[in-house]
């Protein structure tokens, strides 16, 4: 049995109501002040978990609204992931390209990595010209930029020239400062606590 | 046309290969050292965007693996969201309960909020006893705890007593220190840059 709510005291009730009424006024004014609608350039970076995961959460939200979306994975190879399997139920709305060859320390071959990134970028650049795509996820593009596998200026130009209402999510650690400058929304995922440090392994359904 | 990869210099090629070989050795040793498999208590907190979104990304990953999952939304009311609409395609795997009455500043009624949270908690507690659920998302539970709408000790006891392989994701700002202590994985979503500050409004397919 749960304890009785503190709210049974009428004075506290009134204080709560007044506080929340003030909060609502601030909130409503804030909402009313925002009028711009535009395609957002969103960056998920930082050392914590959740960068790619949150990008696929956004994808889910978009397809739930019946919008078309594209995904290009720059680093990850063709291994099968839970999110890939799940999004097969949305093949009518999602175009998915896994173009990487695996992590750079797996291939150990810079030329091969660069070639894979260039191929992925060609697919991504084509998506950034299509106004039927409401959302484009460029997964781990930050890694490709960080290792100079792709020319930053060309990537930034293509992002800037995309259709006005197209949303783009770029993921990966160590986002380039110029990309952060260009972005509308940057979330830094900080690893406050990570189970790998406690000896827990990567598990199906959580990490992949 | 993209510039020729820097990797055409054989010396640089060799250095890259050696560096990545060292990195791979470290990486492989790290992976080998992690042997524990367990249900994770995951907390997404912080002021940035992506807390709930990343939780639904994890849900997508889990259902992609054919696992069953449950969702309880403690604060959000019954308004329709993109993720809710999308996950209807997984009604065979996902049980979804939106139990809130809206944000606390919308209801302005503490007793009503507490009652809604208690009702939501009863559903959540039942999920935390079921070993057929691989993942349970407790969306905005942190808010309910922060306002003392639920007794923290009872919530922590139920989390600790859940099936050993069940993963739980708790979202919301201002996670309680005791919850962070109990968690296996805590990601703090930091708002490095937010488009609301630039006058951009909440848009369908991105915010909801």
Automatic annotation (TrEMBL), chains A, B:
Compartment(s): Cytoplasm
InterPro entries linked to this entry: CblAdoTrfase_CobA, Co_AT_N_dom, P-loop_NTPase
Main location: cytoplasm
Gene3D superfamilies the record matches: P-loop containing nucleotide triphosphate hydrolases
Catalytic class of the enzyme: transferase
Catalytic activity: 2 cob(II)alamin + reduced [electron-transfer flavoprotein] + 2 ATP = 2 adenosylcob(III)alamin + 2 triphosphate + oxidized [electron-transfer flavoprotein] + 3 H(+); 2 cob(II)yrinate a,c diamide + reduced [electron-transfer flavoprotein] + 2 ATP = 2 adenosylcob(III)yrinate a,c-diamide + 2 triphosphate + oxidized [electron-transfer flavoprotein] + 3 H(+)
Record pathway: Cofactor biosynthesis; adenosylcobalamin biosynthesis; adenosylcobalamin from cob(II)yrinate a,c-diamide: step 2/7
GO molecular function terms noted in the UniProt entry: corrinoid adenosyltransferase activity
Annotated spans, Disordered: 1-22
Boundaries of every Cob(I)alamin adenosyltransferase N-terminal domain copy: 9-31
Listed Pfam families: Co_AT_N, CobA_CobO_BtuR
Recorded superkingdom: Bacteria
Keywords of this entry: ATP-binding, Cobalamin biosynthesis, Cytoplasm, Nucleotide-binding, Porphyrin biosynthesis, Transferase
Coiled coil segments of this chain: none
CDD domains per the UniProt record, alphabetical: CobA_ACA
Family matches, as PANTHER family: CORRINOID ADENOSYLTRANSFERASE
Family (UniProt): Belongs to the Cob(I)alamin adenosyltransferase family.
Annotated function: Required for both de novo synthesis of the corrin ring for the assimilation of exogenous corrinoids. Participates in the adenosylation of a variety of incomplete and complete corrinoids.
Full protein name: Corrinoid adenosyltransferase
Source organism per UniProt: Rhizosaccharibacter radicis
Lineage of the organism: Bacteria, Pseudomonadati, Pseudomonadota, Alphaproteobacteria, Acetobacterales
